[in-house]
Amino acid sequence: MNKITFIAVGDIFITRRIPAGGYKGFGEVRDCICAHDVRFSNLEMTFHDQEGYPTAFSGGTWAMTSPRMLDDIKSYGFNIYNTANNHSCDYSHGGVLATIRHLKERDMIFAGTGKNLADATRACYLETDKGRIALIGVSASFHESAMAGGQNGDLCGRPGLNPLRFRTVYHVTPENYRKVQELAKITKINAKMENDVKNGYANPPVEGTMPFGSHSFVRDEKDWTESIPNETDMARILDEVREAKRQADVVMVSIHAHEMDACETNVPAMFLETFSRRCIDEGADAVIGHGPHELRGIEIYKGKPVFYSLGNFLFETDTVAVQPYDAYINKKMSPDTKVGAYMDVRSKNGTAGYGVRPEIWFSVMAGWTMEDGKVTQIQLYPISLGMGSKRSQIGVPVMTGDTEVLKYLAKLSEPYHTVIRIENGIGYIDI
Predict the structure, then answer these.
(1) Number of structural domains, the chain?
(2) Secondary structure of 283-318 in the HEC alphabet?
(3) Which residue from 332, 393, 411, 420 has the fewest beta carbons nearer than 10 Å?
(4) Alpha carbon separation from 21 to 3, 76, 193, 284 (Å, rounded)
(5) CA 39/CA 374 separation, integer angstroms
(6) Domain housing 185
(7) Which residues, in sequence order, are bridge partners of residue 111?
(8) Residue 1's pLDDT is what?
(9) Within this chain, do residues 336 and 295 fall inside the same structural domain, yes or no?
(10) How far apart are CA 413 and CA 308, in angstroms?
(11) Are the C-beta atoms of residues 297 and 412 closer than 8 Å to each other?
């Protein structure tokens, strides 16, 4: 392998067909994507014709669209995909397996979901004339029922996604620690744990630590939040990274994660930083993040890019064709309500939610070049998804050359000491 080029975009939530011949600006986006050898996107949908049952819990909007939308996505030129995200199991195991079938019928190369845990964890491989590329798909945002299950000699596994679980520990000052102790005493939230300790079934908490129901608190010098990836999941994923490194020229890891640092939605949770760096330590050449539907900073770790979130690429949540009974009942609406009316209520007639947040409707497509196995440069192409457009039109990408987007991303990247150089409407990171 000498020189190979990559491009990656964020979430694709598609509910409307691409017009025949494309839309205004489609060609420029497609041509930019197709100018690269490896072309990645995240499929934040299930693709089937009601071939699964809607689950009681969804990732937000129950995400299902016609399998024909896969053909429209392919028309942009993408050739490798992640399928692990908080919508993967919106239509239970039937939706997972149907989506997999429709992807395979179109020879679409994907990773992140499977018929069991080993299948969901396994890397997929893209063959190019420049080298063999591996992708491992992972999600940290999911309901526990969406996790793929392993199999043994007695039972088959469970369809689902490749999970990365994590735990959160709240460090608080002595004063605040006493407040937590007092509240626990008032609410008796730890009564079961305390009874188990009393009866010898559990060990008492270590001095300076205490549970608060399912939460963990630690007495410390200052208030801060720590999040830690689950070691069982880390070991499984890193083992696959090492295997992919043996089998491919380049290894990419895709991680879908909404989790944030406290209340800053554009700052990743600590466990995502830990996860990404450990993947690169074990051989990954790039980590591609998505999930919060907005940009997050870019880190260059050991010469390899970590895109903590590439935001949205296609975002058409309000024109989903159908929603299940549960969606309407949760909003105290008649189950006979039409989707458009449901979306009006959910968005408070366009005055709340994603529709009024500008950062949801701009992003970048991230390109990068590898020569002799090393990343030499990253290129950032700003896109707009048309904030302010009608519901029937909003959500499709056009290239803009908007330097304000690049300046915003540069600011988010400063904590990682990443410098973005802006020239002629494109951002560059020189490595």
Answers:
(1) 2
(2) CCCEEEEECCCCECCEEEECCEEEECCECEEEECHH
(3) 332
(4) 32, 12, 63, 38
(5) 18
(6) 174-219
(7) 82
(8) 63
(9) yes
(10) 10
(11) yes
pLDDT bucket at 59, cuts 50 / 70 / 90: confident
What is the CA angle 237-241-243, rounded to 5? Answer: 115
My answer on whether 13 and 157 are in the same domain is: yes
Task: Read off the DSSP letter of residue 163.
Answer: B
pLDDT per position as a tens digit, 106-164: 999 999 999 999 999 999 999 999 999 999 999 999 999 999 999 999 999 999 999 99
Which amino acid, 74?
K
Element (DSSP H or E) covering residue 251: strand 250-256
Q: What are phi and psi of 219, to 5 degrees?
A: -75, 130
- What is the pLDDT, as a whole number, of residue 2? 84
Q: Encoding tokens for residue 401?
A: 């050359």
Q: How far apart are CA 389 and CA 16, in angstroms?
A: 15
d(CA 227, CA 360): 25
**What's the CA gap between 316 and 16, in Å, rounded?**
7
Q: How far is CA 163 from CA 33, 88, 245, 345, in A?
A: 29, 11, 20, 33
State whether 211 and 153 are in the same domain. Answer: no
Q: What percent of the chain has pLDDT over 90?
A: 96
**Closest C-alpha among 13, 79, 41, 4 to residue 321:** 13
How many residues does this entry show for the chain? 431
Question: What span, in angstroms and rounded, lies between the C-alpha atoms of 89 and 161?
Answer: 8
In a domain, 329, yes or no: yes
Distance CA 6, CA 11 (A): 17
**Whole-prediction pTM:** 0.96
66/96 same-domain check: yes
Burial of 132 per CB tally in 10 Å (0-12, 13-18, 19+): middle
In this structure, are 186 and 84 located in the same domain? Answer: no
